[in-house]
Amino acid sequence: xxxxxxxxxMVYMMGLLFFTSSCKKLVEVDGPTTRISSEDIYSKDATAIxxxxxxxxxxxxxxxxxxxxxxxLSCIGGLSADELTLYLRANDPVLSTFYQNALTNxxxxxxxxxxxxxxxxxxxxxxxxxxKSLTPAVKQQLLGEARFMRAFYYFYMVNLYGDIPLxxxxxxxxxxxxxxxxxxxxxxxxxxxLKEAQDLLADQYxxxxxxxxxxxxxxxxxxxxxxxxxxxxxxxxxFIQDWSNAELQSSIVIDHKELYGIESLDGAFLKNNxxxxxxxxxxxxxxxxxxxxxxxxxxxxxxxxxxxxxxxxLIKSFEPNDxxxxxxxxxxxxxxxxxxxxxxYKIPQTGTSASPVTEYRTVMRLAELxxxxxxARAEQNNLTDAISDIDVIRERAGLGLxxxxxxSVSRDELxxxxxxxxxRELFTEWGHRWLDLKRTGKxxxxxxxxxxxxxxxxxxxxxxxxxxxxxxxxNTNRNLTPTEGY
Amino acid sequence: MLAKAIVNGLLSTAKEASKTNDKMYSIYTKKTGxxxxxxxxxxxxxxxxxxxxxxxxxxxxxxxxxQRITMTQKNxxxxxxxxxxxxxxxxxxxxxxxAIGDNQxxxxxxxxxxxxEALKNVLTGLNLSYKIDGKIVSIRKIEEPSLLDNLIxxxxxxxxxGRVVDAxxxxxxxxxxxxxxxxxxxxxxxxxxxxxxxxxxxxxTLIISFIGYVTKEIKAAKELGDVVLELSTSKLDEVQVIxxxxxxxxxxTGNVTTIKADVIEKQPVNNPLLALQGRVPGLFIEQAxxxxxxxxxxxxxxxxxxxxxxxxxxxINGVPFNSQLLPNGNSxxxxxxxxxxxxxSPGNPLSFINxxxxxxxxxxxxxxxxxxxxxxxxxxxxxxxxxxxKAGDTRVDLNLQSGWSxxxxxxxxxxxxxxxxxxxxxxxxxxxxxxxxxPYGDNDLNGNWDATRDVDWQKExxxxxxxxxxxxxxxxxxxxxxxxxxxxxxxxxxxVFPGDFADQKVSLRxxxxxxxxxxxxxxxxxxxxxxxxxxxxxxxxxxxAVSLVPLAPDLYTGSGKVNWSxxxxxxSTFFNNPIRYLFNSFLSKTNNLTSSALLSxxxxxxxxxxxxxxxxxxxxxxIYKNRLESSSPEDLEYSSRNTTFTDTKMSSWSIxxxxxxxxxxxxxxxxxxxxxxxxxxxxxxxxxxADGFSNDLVMDDILSAQTVHASSSINAVxxxxxxxxxxxxNWENKYLIxxxxxxxxxxxxxxxxxxxxxxxxxxxxxxxxxKFIKDNLGFLSFGKLRGSFGxxxxxxxxxxxxxxxxxxKPRSVPYQGLVTYEPSKLSNPFLQWEETKKxxxxxxxxxxxxxxxxxMNYYANHSxxxxxxxxxxxxxxxxxxxxxxxxxxxxxxxxxxLSSNNVSSKHFTxxxxxxxxxxxxxxxxxxxxxxxxxxxxxxxxxxxxxxxxYHFMGVDPATGIYQFADKNGNPTSTPNDPTDRxxxxxxxxxxxxxxxxxxxxxxxxxxxxxxxTRQTGLDDILFGNNNYLPGQFNFGLGGQxxxxxxxxxxxxxxxxxxxxxxxxxxxxxWANAATYSDAAWVDASYIRLKNVSLSYQLPDKLTKSVHLRxxxxxxxxxxxxxxxxxxxxxxETKNSVSLPPLRVITIGVKVGL
Lengths: 486, 1153
Fold this sequence. Notes:
The structure holds two protein chains of two kinds.
Chain A: H1 2-21, E1 36-37, H2 38-41, H3 45-61, H4 73-80, E2 84-86, H5 93-99, H6 111-130, H7 136-161, H8 172-175, H9 183-200, H10 226-239, H11 243-254, E3 276-280, H12 290-295, E4 308-310, H13 312-317, H14 323-328, E5 329-334, E6 337-342, E7 361-365, H15 366-379, H16 383-396, H17 402-405, H18 411-425, H19 432-439, H20 443-453, H21 471-476
Antiparallel strand pairs in A: 2-4, 3-7, 5-6
Chain B: H1 2-32, H2 36-57, E1 68-77, H3 78-89, E2 92-95, E3 105-114, H4 115-123, E4 128-133, E5 136-141, H5 148-154, E6 157-165, E7 176-179, E8 186-188, E9 194-201, E10 205-209, E11 216-219, E12 223-228, E13 239-242, E14 245-248, E15 256-260, H6 261-264, E16 283-287, E17 296-300, E18 313-316, E19 319-321, E20 358-364, H7 367-370, E21 381-386, E22 392-406, H8 416-429, H9 457-462, E23 466-478, E24 482-493, E25 503-515, E26 521-534, H10 542-545, E27 585-602, E28 607-626, E29 642-665, E30 668-691, E31 707-731, E32 735-746, E33 755-766, H11 771-776, E34 780-794, E35 805-809, E36 820-823, E37 834-847, E38 852-864, E39 866-871, E40 880-885, E41 888-904, E42 908-925, E43 947-949, E44 951-955, E45 962-965, E46 971-972, E47 983-985, E48 991-1001, E49 1004-1014, E50 1016-1018, H12 1068-1075, E51 1081-1083, E52 1086-1097, H13 1100-1105, E53 1110-1124, E54 1143-1152
Parallel strand pairs in B: 2-5, 6-12, 18-21
Antiparallel strand pairs in B: 1-3, 4-5, 6-9, 7-8, 7-10, 10-11, 13-14, 15-20, 16-17, 18-19, 20-21, 22-23, 22-54, 23-24, 24-25, 25-26, 26-27, 27-28, 28-29, 29-30, 30-31, 31-32, 32-33, 33-34, 34-37, 35-36, 37-38, 38-41, 39-40, 41-42, 42-48, 43-47, 44-45, 45-46, 48-49, 49-52, 50-51, 52-53, 53-54
C-alpha cells in the first residue's frame, strides 16, 4: 500500500515534468530588440533604404591610408603608381609594400572589404526582387542603386585584381568554391548591371525617402542617379575600348546641362557643385573629407599621420602656367625640403563639431566625362570634337587651347596629351592614374623607371600591376588559382 | 497508567481519523475545487501519515496492553484455552507440538483478569514457560532445551529505536543503520536523526554510518538513545558537493576534486579561481595579466571545442553563474580564454565573488559528475559553496591582512650605450650619414634629447610597490533549528603604475538556515552582494616600459603635465610619452548580487521534495574619459573631450524543483533524484559616446556634451530548460552504480534542434571492502576502481547565432539623416548541439589507514559535431560561418594525485600532496578534410593547438637578413606561405601540476605550494620589441632587449640577429617571417613558488586570558619565485607587453571572539 502510493506519486510527478519540459515556450526567444532580422530589413521602406545607404557610408568612411574601402584608392592607387611619394620614415610597413610594388599574398588589400560590400549588394538585390511590401518607387530606386553599386565594386576589383570570382548570390556554399571569371565576363556583368541601373534609377537627386527629389540648384548629390550609372558605363566602355559607346554614354551626361556643368577650379570639390555627379557625405563630426585629413600637410611636414606627398614626377608634368598647380596643389617646407601635397580638398579635420561642412568626397565628376569623350572620339579619329572636349579641361586650367596652339595635332599625339591631361586633372582621385597606366598598356614602361626610384631594389615586374589574391582566399577556396606571378 | 491513557487516546483518534477520511475529503474537494490529482496526493499523504503514526506507536511494549480476560472451564484442552485467549486478547501463541499435546487438559476460572495474570494462571504447574514478545506469546518447555531453541531465538527479537547525532547533538538525517552479518536489515534515519528498527536479535550488532563521519558499530538494545558519530578525519570521508547533492571521495563514482576554505584563505588572491592554480589535477588555470580583476582562462581536462566556448559551468550554491563578462570592459585586463567566434570580453566574472565567502570549491570533471548538467557541462563544472553558520554560541570572526605587491621580474634591456650603438649602426646600415634633424627626425641622436640620460623605464612605469588590504569579518551562530551567518569584507589593491589606481571591493553576505520543529521543512537562504570600483587606466604601461628608449625625456613637466619635450621651435618630440594615457581615466563600477534559496520538505521518510530558486545580477557601469591633456599640442585641434558611458547588465533567474527518494532495497541503498530546470538569462548593454565637453569638470554629465550618440548595444535573452534524473545504488558500500540523464532545451539553437538528450553511466567497486582483500592485503586500507561514460553537450556559442541579423550603425552625422544597417554575419538556421562523449577510468588507493592516498584517472573525451567557426573565403562576404563540423576532437590524459601524511604526531605533522596532469588534445578526425576550407591550416592527427611555422636558418652571412628553409630545405629569405611552413608548433601544455607541503610544529604551520607547467610559448620580443625592429626609433619607442646585440654587421658575419635598420621598408617581410618561424617559439616551461603561508596560533591559555576564542598571526606570499628559461617577462602570460602576475606578500591576523 505504502510503496504503491509512492510509486504512484512519482509517476504523477514525472508525468508533470515531462509535460512541462516539452513546452517549447520555455526555450523560444524573440530576436534581440536591438537588431533587425534579414527578413524584416527589406520589408519596410525606411530600413531598406538604411541597408542600401550603408554602402555609401562605408565607402565614405574608409581611411585613406588603409586598404579596406575603395575610396582609399585616392591614396593607395597613387602610391602604387607614380603619383605619390611615401614618407618612409613614417615606418608604415603596409603602405611601404604598396608604394614599392612589393605586395605579397599576405596582404588582403581591398579584397575582404569589397566582397563584404558585394555580399550586402547581392543580399539587397535578392531581397528587393522578392519583397512586395515596399513602395514601388522606393523598390525601383533601391534596386537600381544596388545594381549600380555591384557594377561599381566589380569595376574596381577587375581593374585591381584582373580575373576574379564573379559572385551574384549570397549563397556561401556556392561562393566558397567559385573559380575566377575572365575579365571580359566581369565586364559584361558590369555593363548589364549598369544598363539595368540606368533604367531603374531616378534622373533627379532623391531625398532620403527615395521618393521626393530636391529642387534643382539645392540638391544633395549623395545618392546615385541615372547619370552616375551613365558615367560609370562610359568609363567601362572606355576601359574595354568600345569607343562609340563610351562617347555615347559620356554625351548623355555632358548634354544634361540642367544638372551638370564645369565649375571653377576652386568650386570643383565643394559639396553639391554642378560638376559633381556623385558625392559622399562625411558621417564624422568635425570632418569634411578624409582626403584632406591625410593629404593636407601641417607646417611640420609629412609624418606617420600624414605620410604621403605628391611625386616630383607629377609636379614636373604640369605646364608652367597651369592654374591647377596653384588651386589644387599646395606645399610646405621643412628643414630645407619642399613637400607638395594635394589641395583639392582644403578643409582640415577639426575637433569641434561647430565648423560647417563645405566639401564632400567626390566619386565622379563631369571633367572625367570630357576626358573620356575626348579619348573615345580621338580613337574614332574624330579629332576635332576630341580637341574641343580636351580644351574644356585645358581652358579651365588656364592653359592654351589645342585648337589654337596645335589644331593639326596627330591622333597619337592627341591621345598622349589626353592621357597626360588625365594624370594632371584626376590626380589623387580614386586611383585613376594607376588604372589608366594599366588599361593603356603603359604600366611597364612607366613603372620600370618609377619603382626603383621608390626604393624597391629588385625593380618592377610585370605581374605587380595586379594586386595578389590573398593567401586566405587561396587557402579557403580550393578552386581559386593565385594571381599570376605571385 | 497515564502513558497508557494517552496511548489509547491517540489510537482512538487515529482510528477516528481514518474512519472519517473519505467523507471529510469529499467535502473539502467540493468547496475548493482542488484538482483530482492534488486530491489524490493529499489523500495519499494523509493515509501515509496515519500509517507512520501507527507504526511509531507500535514501539510501545505489548506488556502494557491491558486486556481483561474472563473464562471459566473445566478440563478442557490447553490448546482450546489458548485459542480462546487469542480471541479475547488479540495475542497470538507460538508453541511446539511436543510442548503442548492434544490431550493436555487444564481447568481455568478467570474473571476480568489481566492477560498476564490469566496466562500465569493457565500455565502454572505445566512445566511450561512463556515469553511475550510484541503480540506473540511463545511457549516452551522449561526443561530439555533443544534445537528448537535456536529457532525460537529468532523470535526473541527486539525493536531498536534511537537517534543518530553529531558531536554537537544535532540529528543526522539520512544516516544508515544496518544490522551486521548476513540477512541483515537496514534503515535510514529520519529528519531528526531518529530511527526505528524492528525485530532485531538481541545479540545483534548495528552498523551506523553517515557520509563524512566515522562508521560506528554498536550493540543492539531496545532504547539506544543518542548515538554520537564522530567526524571522519580521513580525506576520503570529506564531504564533496556534487550536482544536486553531496557525496564523499570514498563513495563517489565520478572524478571530483574538492578545495576547502582553509586552502583558499591562505592565498592573497582577488579571484577564487586563482586559488585553485596548481592544486587540482586536470584543471589548467592561466592568469592573463597581473591586474586586479584580470582575465582567467580555465580549462578542465583540455579543450573540447575547436571554436565555441570551452569554459566550465560555474554553479554557486546550486545556481548557475556567468562564465564570461559582456564586452566593452577595460581591455587591459585580458580575456578569460575566449576563442573563436565569441566576443572577446575582458576580465572574469568570478572576480566579483569574495574568496573569503567560500566554504568549498568542487571541480567536477568526468561525465558521471557532470552529465546531469547536460548541455552546459561538456567542459566540466566548478561548484562553489559559500560558508554557513554553526549552531552554538554566537561567534565573531575577523581576518585582517595587509600587504605589498610588485612586478617580480624585469627584462634585461639595452642600456643607453648599447642603445646608442645600435641606433648609430642602424643609420649607418641604411646609408644615412647624419641623424635626421627636426622634431620628426631622430630625436635621440640629433641633439633634441639629452643623450646622457639612462633611465630604467621598467622601474619608472611598473616598478612601484602596490598595496594590498583585505579585511573580512563575520558573525555566525544559531541553535539546533536555525543557524545564521552574516559577513562583510573590504578588499583594496593598488597598482604598480605611477599614480594611485585602486581596485576596491566591498561585500556583504548572509546565510540563514531553518528547520521546522518536526524536522520536515527546511529552508536555506543565502545571498551575497559585492560592489567593486576599479580605477585602472585602460592602458597597460608594461608594453611602454619595455620599449621606451633609455634616454627618453622625463614623463612629466615641472607642473605635472605630460612632457611633450618641445624642441627649440616649440614642436613636440616625445609623442609616445606613455604617461599621457594616465590622463584619460577609466572607472569601472561593478555590482554583483548572487542569491539562492532552497526549500525542502520531507514528505515521507524516503521521499523529499525540494526546490531551489536563484537570482543573480551582475551589472557594470564603465566611464571612460578622454581628456585633452592626453593629446599633444599638435593634435589638440583634432581632439575633443569625450566620455564613453557603458552600462552593462546580466541577470538570470532559475528554478529547479526536485524530488528525491531514498530507500534501502535489499542490502543496498537506492537514491533517486528527479528534477526540472527553468533558467532565463538577460544580457543588456547600452553604450553612449558623448563628445565636445567644455571642461574636465563636467565630463561625468551627459547633458554637458555637445553631441551624443550610441556606441554599443546588446539585448539578448537566453532561455534554457531541462528535466533531469539520477539513480544511485550503493550495495554495502562496495558496489556503486550511478545513472544520470537529462533532456535539455536551449534557445541558442534553431527551432528544429532546440532539444537534446544527455546521460551517463558510472560504476565503482570498492574492492578493499571485499573479504579476500581485507584478509590478504592488510596494508591496503582503501581501494576503489571506477569508470564512467556519458554524453554531454555544449551550447556556448553566444545568443542568436542561428538568426541572420542587421546591426544599426549609428554615426555622429547620419548620412542624409538616415540610420543605416549592416548585416553582421552569415547565419545558419541548422545549428545543433555539440556533443562530447566522455570516458573515464579511475583507481583510488589508500594505504596505511588512509595516510597515503593515491588517485589516478585516465580520461578520453571525444567531441564531435563541433559547433565551429568554419572558415570561408572572403568572397562569401564574411570570414566564417558557425556550423556543425563533422570533425572530432579527442581529449585524453592522465591525472595523478598523491597525498600523504608523512609525520603525524602530537606536536609535529607533515603532509605532502602532489598532483600531475598529462593532457593531450588532438584533432583526431576530419572527414572530407581535403575539400574543407581549413585543409591548409588545420592539422589532422595533431594537437588541436598545433600550427605550422617556417624553419629558421639564421642570418644570411652575405646579406645580413634572416633566412628560412623552403619546403626542400634550401635557405630563402622570402618563404612561401603556406608551402614553406614545415615545422609544427604546439603551444598547448605538455604537463602541469603542483606540489604542496604542509608542516605543523606546535603552534606554527607552514604551507608551501609549487606549481609547474611544461609548455612552448612565443617569445614576443626576440625579433623586434612591440613591432619595432632593432634600430628603429619612433618618438620615444624603440628600446630593445640586451640579448639582441649579437647581430650581423658586415658580409661574412655569422650572427643570430639580422642587421640593424632604422626603417621598416624591405626588411619587414623577413623580420615578420622570423616571428612566424620556429625560432620565435621557445620553451616557456616554469616552476613557480606559487604560495607560501606561515601562521602562528596563539596558545589557548593566552587567548582565553584575553577572552578570545582563537588568535592566529600569519604571513602569506603569492607568486614568490619562478624558475624558467623563458626570456620574456612571464611564462604564464607568455608575453612581455602585459603586466605579469604580481608577487604579493601579506601579513595579517585572524581572531575569533
